[in-house]
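3.2 Worked example (two chains)
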Amino acid sequence: MPVEHTDVRWGSIGVQNTRVLGRQRRRFKVQMGAASGFTVDVSAGAFCAELRRVFPKVTAGKGTILVEGQEYDFSGRVAWAKQGDFRLNMRGRMGVTFTDAPEELRRIFGVGPSGTPLPTPGPFPHGRS
């Protein structure tokens, strides 16, 4: 996820949220190639997942996401990745942008639990959500 450094205030750097789509924290089982794990957050166009093995940035791949008993196939591209540390039992994280996903999956990920569309997030100062 890209971030823009704005200005320095009280000894910290302000960071502007540049996401285009609203995110919701949801945990779904995800499989990409030989790697499997769980989503951290999802939107209609992308998701963040925790996995033992993450792929390098710009890697394209196919996978599945299990949502309420239904398995959805998708194709995506790794937008960013952060390796974990197996010695500390820490999983890695990666952000995946959908290049092809069923409309039903995008609809599910694009609305909150109440059924209302997720708003585009605004700018948030560094360290706040």
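3.2.1 Second chain
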Amino acid sequence: MRISELPGIGTKYEIKSPEGDKVAVIFLETGEIELYVLEAGADKPSVTRLTPEEARRVGSVLTGAMLTIEREDVEVSFSDISDLRINIHICQVTGSMVGKSIEDLAIRKKTGVTVIAISRSGQSIINPPPETVFEEGDLIVVIGERAQIKAFARVILGLV
């Protein structure tokens, strides 16, 4: 990798592949990032400008720490363990859950998901014990495989 300071512009990082392709990333002084790709033998590079958030997302994809976000669901996958997909789901406690504990509802036994956190009146309960009783307005975070999350929504939350 070659690093160059570009006075008044920013910092350029350039990588050349064994096939002769070049990728350059320029961190502009404005905070934006420009990404250039010049294929071997091409006359002109492809270029796109990214916000810092977009650049972080691309970086996550390239390093294999991919997140797929869909509404209140997040799916995490890892490059070193390609068959591992962890799904995290955030939902509001339903009326049928209020006054009952994690253990009373047998959430893990019935669905396979684990309750990893509860947000209650602006306070976080991380890794709540099984005897934790749900209250009206609680937001809960559960983790499991996609099928387990669906079973949780159906069996515990009563969603179809």
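3.3 Remarks
Residues 2-63 form one domain.
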